Amino acid sequence: MEAIEDFIYRYEGEQKAILLYFHHYLYEQLELTPKIKFKIPFYYRKSWICYLNPIKPNGIELAFTRGNELSNAQGLLQTKARKQFSGITFHTVKEIPFKAIDEIVQEAILLDEQVPYASKRKKNK
Q: Looking at the domain assignment, is residue 120 inside a domain?
């Protein structure tokens, strides 16, 4: 847990506020397990569900590792030319649509619980 807090407190201003907001929501409220992977915080239940990615100059992207499998009924998720991942970038805490984000996160958790993640990478023989 200390690694996540160290990561968050390296940032300032709105980036730090957004990171704290989502960390509190994902870890404390939803009880997802945080881990630093690829130098950023990922949140897990059975497998990885989402991650927080600082975007230059001052945004934070909440990205979903199985974004291509989510409904995106809220119309917020952006793939940014990625095949599997999709996310939403925020620049202030005020602009976070909590109800819509909660719906997306709950759908991602349900997907994780019902359909185990299976890597689509080809295994070397």
A: no
pLDDT, tens digit, 9 for 90 and up, residues 9-25: 999 999 999 999 999 99
**Do 2 and 34 form a contact (C-beta atoms < 8 A)?**
no
Tell me the pLDDT of the chain averaged across its residues. Answer: 92
**CATH, residue 15:** 3.90.1150.200
**Structural domains of the chain, count:** 1
Give the C-alpha distances (Å, rounded to integers) separating 60 from 20, 37, 53, 113, 115. Answer: 11, 16, 6, 26, 28
Q: Is 124 domain-assigned?
A: no
Helix H or strand E encompassing 74 = none
DSSP tally for the chain: helices H, then strands E: 3, 5
Other C-beta atoms lying within 10 Å of the C-beta of residue 109 = 18
Nearest to 22 by CA among 104, 81, 82: 104
Residues of the domain holding 71: 2-114
Neighbouring-strand partners of residue 64: 50, 86
pTM above 0.85, yes or no: yes
